[in-house]
Amino acid sequence: MDWFYSYILKDGAGQPIGWEQINNWTSAQGILWLHLDYARDRTAITQEELNSHLSEQMNKTMYILSIVAAIFLPLGLSTGLLGINVGAIPGTDNKFAFVFGSMFLVAFAFVQIFIFKRKKWL
């Protein structure tokens, strides 16, 4: 079998390659694989950090969106209920009913904001 290795494994000048040179190549290849493995690990860590940063940014955005929705959804519901045209709406005979209703909605929004700040959600 040695004749096969000596026939196949020749350098550029046609001289047979010795086992020492083959060992040097394999150790150099091993070092190259080790460096590639380290680069792969560093790339995976960088990708995890980037995903974590993007996830944190999305969480902040969703938090702000939920606070805005919590403030404006009850206000929209109450204005929608008061905006329907039926005869039994309270305040139809009073000319200041719109002002009182608007003041109530503004006060309700301030109470919500106060509660959110007290619970440290804002």
UniProtKB/TrEMBL annotation:
<keyword id="KW-1133">Transmembrane helix</keyword>
<dbReference type="GO" id="GO:0050897">
    <property type="term" value="F:cobalt ion binding"/>
</dbReference>
<feature type="transmembrane region" description="Helical">
    <location>
        <begin position="96"/>
        <end position="116"/>
    </location>
</feature>
<keyword id="KW-0472">Membrane</keyword>
<dbReference type="InterPro" id="IPR045863">
    <property type="entry name" value="CorA_TM1_TM2"/>
</dbReference>
<dbReference type="GO" id="GO:0000287">
    <property type="term" value="F:magnesium ion binding"/>
</dbReference>
<dbReference type="GO" id="GO:0015087">
    <property type="term" value="F:cobalt ion transmembrane transporter activity"/>
</dbReference>
<dbReference type="GO" id="GO:0005886">
    <property type="term" value="C:plasma membrane"/>
</dbReference>
<feature type="transmembrane region" description="Helical">
    <location>
        <begin position="62"/>
        <end position="84"/>
    </location>
</feature>
<dbReference type="InterPro" id="IPR002523">
    <property type="entry name" value="MgTranspt_CorA/ZnTranspt_ZntB"/>
</dbReference>
<keyword id="KW-0812">Transmembrane</keyword>
<protein>
    <submittedName>
        <fullName>CorA-like Mg2+ transporter protein</fullName>
    </submittedName>
</protein>
<dbReference type="Pfam" id="PF01544">
    <property type="entry name" value="CorA"/>
</dbReference>
<dbReference type="GO" id="GO:0015095">
    <property type="term" value="F:magnesium ion transmembrane transporter activity"/>
</dbReference>
